[in-house]
Design goal:
It contains 5 helices and 5 strands; from the N terminus they run βαβαβαβαβα. Helix 1 packs across helix 5 and helix 2 runs parallel beside helix 3. It starts with a strand and ends in a 12-residue tail after the last helix.
């Protein structure tokens, strides 16, 4: 089973993604902030990480930067989620090494399919328009 860490301070989004990705066969660890995400990634060694951009403490960009700077985690796909549809934020995410940047709110089944495709072993590579 693939391991997944999801960090989002929005309880509804976190519960939704945890349930949906769990139904798709992922073992999901859900946390509510960036510092907890870094700890979870270090202990769980997930196959993929999903980060909300705007979280208390360390935001998603900083967590992404730290994950990509660490040789032990730099190869793990990281997807950022945000309610901000800002071209500069999308460009920053890609420059930092994000596998994708998904705008909230998202269509439930569509986002789950996208995330499954981005996970290691997914059937296709998903390209998002900036």
């Amino acid at each position: 089973m693939k391991r997944l860490v999801i960090a989002d301070d929005d309880d509804v989004a976190l519960a939704f993604l945890k349930a949906k990705m769990g139904q798709r066969g992922f073992v999901v660890t859900a946390v509510k902030d960036g510092a907890a995400a870094l700890l979870a990634v270090a202990s769980i060694k997930p196959d993929m990480v999903i980060l909300d951009v705007m979280m208390p403490g360390l935001d998603g960009f900083e967590v992404l930067r730290q994950l990509k700077a660490n040789p032990a985690t730099q190869g793990v796909p990281v997807v950022l989620l945000s309610a901000r549809h800002n071209v500069a934020d999308i460009a920053r995410a890609k420059a930092l090494g994000a596998a994708d940047y998904i705008i909230k709110p998202f269509v439930s089944d569509a986002v789950v399919e996208q995330l499954q495709e981005l996970a290691p072993g997914g059937t296709t590579a998903v390209q998002r328009k900036a």
